[in-house]
Amino acid sequence: MAGSRILVVDDDEACVLMVSAGLRKLGYEVAAATDGWDGLAQARAQKPELILLDVKMPQMDGWTFLGFLRNQKEFEKVPVIFLTGRTSEEDRRKGLGLGADDYLTKPVDLDRLKACIEAALERRAKVHQSTVRMADPRRPKGRFGLRGRLDQLGLAAVLSILGAG
Question: What is the three-class DSSP state of 59?
């Protein structure tokens, strides 16, 4: 979804520049932070729709950053994709277990990164749509959007409703 705001949180400036340039070329708006504390400040200021996050950073690592993020109501549903040099399966499981949407290792192919970003943004959009639909006070209650008691309907009406699916 081109035009989405993405925050890149990574202490490796070369990586940030390369990833940011690639994402801008694909049509995304990109903000960057060089450590976890700066990342939290940028997240509050920029309101990103997705965050790309390194694990190993000074002052605050990616694990801690994600924990802070998931404990804040405004960011609990923002997709986070780890983009890191840590390649062990244990790290991958830990990242996903902490609530990351995906776990990619560096160096990453731009096409693969784009596919992961698009998938995460689409999942977020679907969750958001269903949440909004469920919270709509005008939405009728009940499994089929019907309210009332069956004994208030005649047999023909019940069969008609069942036939309509």
Answer: coil
